[in-house]
Specification:
single chain, Rossmann fold, globular
């Protein structure tokens, strides 16, 4: 199984690029499953989304807890041989928590959950992320400059070994960068 993770700051283009990756492999005739978190097809994802739309410390904790349960559920249900599994918002949900706890949970999750060489962190300056997010209807609790800056700083401390891709450029340029890495990884897997 090819296991691809697309994570990053809100507004960085995770869903857009994950769909482009899915389309790339489906055009080759491969079976691809794309899971975005929080998911809309189970109670964990729905509760995580509800908490993200709230405010306060309790909602931050609830969002992180339900988000983690949603991710674990996806891994258990969709981790099958012979497929490409793409996970959007996979491990970086821990960055909503204080840094020491985020680091601890990240170490635990990377020990018990699948990881791979196909892990992408889509990076974006918080000011640009906020500008992009202001075009959306729903505002989640972390979608302000202070939280975006803190979440990005924590994430960049955790993503050692990931492919860090700046999404400041055009969607096409960013996707070409991702595709080059995918092709290198795929040729290494097959060769």
């Amino acid at each position: 199984m090819r296991f691809i993770v697309v994570d990053g700051l809100d507004g960085s283009g995770k869903s857009t690029h994950a769909r482009m990756i899915r389309d790339k492999y489906q055009e080759k005739g491969e079976k691809v499953i794309l899971r975005e978190h929080p998911s809309n097809d189970n109670s964990y994802g729905l509760e995580a989304k509800k908490a993200l739309l709230g405010r306060g410390k309790v909602n931050k904790i609830k969002a992180a807890l339900y988000y983690a349960l949603d991710v674990v559920r996806s891994v258990r249900l969709y981790n099958e041989e012979g497929k490409t599994l793409i996970m959007v918002r996979y491990l970086m949900g821990v960055t909503y928590l204080p840094l020491p706890l985020a680091q601890l949970l990240y170490r635990i999750f990377t020990t018990v959950l699948p990881t791979s060489d196909y892990m992408f962190f889509l990076d974006l300056e918080p000011e640009e992320a906020l500008r992009r997010l202001q075009e959306r209807e729903d505002e989640e609790m972390f979608e302000n400059l202070e939280d975006l800056t803190q979440v990005r700083d924590k994430a960049l401390k955790l993503v050692a070994g990931w492919h860090i891709i700046s999404t400041e450029g055009s969607i096409e340029d960013v996707q070409r960068s991702i595709d080059r890495i995918l092709e290198e990884l795929d040729s290494g897997v097959k060769g």
